[in-house]
């Protein structure tokens, strides 16, 4: 059996992955707060965890992996959006969940096993907070419940910070009811017009961090295998999840392996609204960039490195995928190439696995006279382990114009030119087609035209 190795943030080492229960490998990814469209950067860990999910299913069996990703549907950003727009909160969260599903589906990300919503887990959160208070790790004050960071000696271990460093470096909300400025909110009071639930500390709503601890415990147990998110979540979110879960369930270990991905840039710059290079997944899809192209570009950089989205990469990827889809026509899945599996197992080296796919495709293309039946099948299966060349993501490459009328005309002009030895009309038509981004192949058997990556139908002249 292939052994997966993962760079574990918790130990700062690359470790062999040994599941607690190979019959049920369990992983958790912090999901979105649902008040707006997901931006491109949000897709990075979704795609990373999707490849990990596929790899684990390949190694341990499709029915032996449980993947949980939550929806944060109670949050001050959602409340603010509702106040701005005058719309009910449930309308906003429902609509955003729908958008999120549509966008991630378009990128070929499989749906997780469970997608719990915070508002469905309020009783579990209240129970966990009560337990933390009973154990002396939390306290109630002025309608709030707060986690006491001084009560947990390992606070800061994941991100490698001491509480004093955090106080010095972080923008800590100082509040009179906090014993230590780093103490964080488990529960807070809700005023009018803001969602709330009755609790032992009064009418209120949970803080953000407690939801992941409560949902992970309910769906995955006190100890599970892998937890992940963007590296911007390491502190404070993941640090707080660990503190809550470890103190509420000292018998458990919470997550054994922590995976954090680096951030996304656009054309070498940080993505930000002020720089005008901020865009959502939907923006790209609406520009006509296929989800499969976004996916392969995102997987082209190892998750541990900053990822740079560029238009040039997208154009190149479009070309690659068109060629690959042509290559696998009629091929059926067998099983993936072991080298691709090994590369993915090596800390999810998606970039290396794509290089291997390029080499495999090159080899097949270099032997057009050979049938390459097995090679194509292995290539297809390997690509699908990365969620590429799937049926669901297909179709976009064929959705080009019908160029047969142009091919017929060019064929007729050529036949004429063979007689007259005057090729001017043939050359003129060829340059018109090339100018419109059409790839022209003329052989003894006929004329073949195909829309290339720079195809522009408006540059085609009538025939
Ligand atoms: Zn979380």
TrEMBL record:
Zn(2+) binds at residues 30, 212, 237, 241. It is an enzyme of class 6 (ligase). Its EC number is 6.1.1.16. It comes from the Bacteria. Gene3D superfamilies: Cysteine-tRNA ligase, C-terminal anti-codon recognition domain, HUPs. The keyword Protein biosynthesis applies. It is found in: Cytoplasm. A motif ('KMSKS' region) lies at residues 270-274. ATP binds at residue 273. A motif ('HIGH' region) lies at residues 32-42. GO terms for molecular function: cysteine-tRNA ligase activity. Its cofactor is Zn(2+). Monomer. HAMAP family: Cys_tRNA_synth. This is Cysteine--tRNA ligase. It comes from Yoonia phaeophyticola. The gene is cysS.
């Amino acid at each position: 059996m292939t052994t997966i190795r993962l760079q574990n943030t918790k130990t700062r080492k690359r470790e062999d992955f040994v599941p607690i229960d190979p019959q049920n490998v369990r992983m958790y990814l912090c999901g979105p707060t649902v008040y707006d469209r997901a931006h491109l950067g949000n897709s990075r860990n979704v795609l990373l965890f999707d490849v990990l999910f596929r790899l684990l299913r390949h190694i341990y069996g499709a029915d032996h992996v449980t993947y949980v990703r939550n929806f944060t549907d109670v949050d001050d950003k959602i409340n603010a959006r509702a106040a701005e727009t005058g719309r009910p909160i449930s309308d906003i969260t429902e609509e955003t969940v729908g958008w999120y599903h549509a966008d991630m589906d378009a990128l070929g990300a499989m749906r997780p096993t469970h997608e719990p919503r915070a508002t469905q887990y309020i009783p579990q959160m209240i129970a966990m907070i009560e337990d933390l208070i009973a154990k002396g790790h939390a306290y109630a004050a002025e309608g709030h419940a707060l986690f006491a960071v001084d009560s947990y000696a390992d606070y800061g271990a994941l991100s490698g910070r001491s509480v004093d460093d955090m106080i010095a470096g972080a923008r800590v909300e100082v509040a009179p009811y906090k014993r230590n400025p780093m103490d964080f909110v488990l529960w807070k009071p809700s005023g009018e017009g803001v969602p709330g639930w009755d609790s032992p500390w009064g009418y209120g709503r949970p803080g953000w961090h407690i939801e992941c601890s409560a949902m992970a415990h309910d769906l995955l147990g006190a100890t599970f295998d892998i937890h992940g998110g963007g590296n911007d979540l390491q502190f404070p979110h993941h640090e707080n999840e660990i503190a809550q879960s470890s103190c509420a369930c000292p018998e458990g270990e919470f997550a054994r392996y922590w995976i954090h991905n680096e951030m996304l840039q656009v054309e070498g710059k940080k993505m930000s609204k002020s720089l005008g290079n901020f865009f959502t997944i939907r923006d790209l899809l609406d520009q006509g960039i296929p989800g499969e192209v976004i996916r392969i570009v995102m997987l082209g950089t190892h998750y541990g490195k900053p990822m740079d989205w560029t238009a040039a990469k997208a154009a190149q990827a479009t070309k690659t995928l068109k060629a690959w889809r042509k290559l696998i026509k009629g091929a059926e899945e067998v099983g993936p190439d072991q080298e691709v599996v090994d590369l993915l197992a090596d800390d999810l080296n998606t970039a290396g696995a794509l290089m291997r796919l390029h080499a495999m495709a090159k080899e097949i293309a270099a032997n057009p006279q050979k049938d390459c039946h097995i090679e194509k099948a292995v290539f297809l299966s390997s690509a699908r382990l990365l969620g590429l060349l799937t049926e669901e993501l297909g179709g976009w490459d064929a959705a080009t114009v019908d160029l047969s009328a142009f091919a017929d005309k060019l064929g007729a002009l050529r036949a004429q030119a063979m007689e007259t030895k005057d090729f001017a009309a043939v050359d003129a038509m060829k340059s018109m087609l090339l100018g419109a981004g059409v790839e022209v192949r003329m052989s003894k058997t006929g004329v073949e035209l195909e829309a290339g990556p720079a195809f522009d139908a408006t540059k085609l002249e009538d025939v």
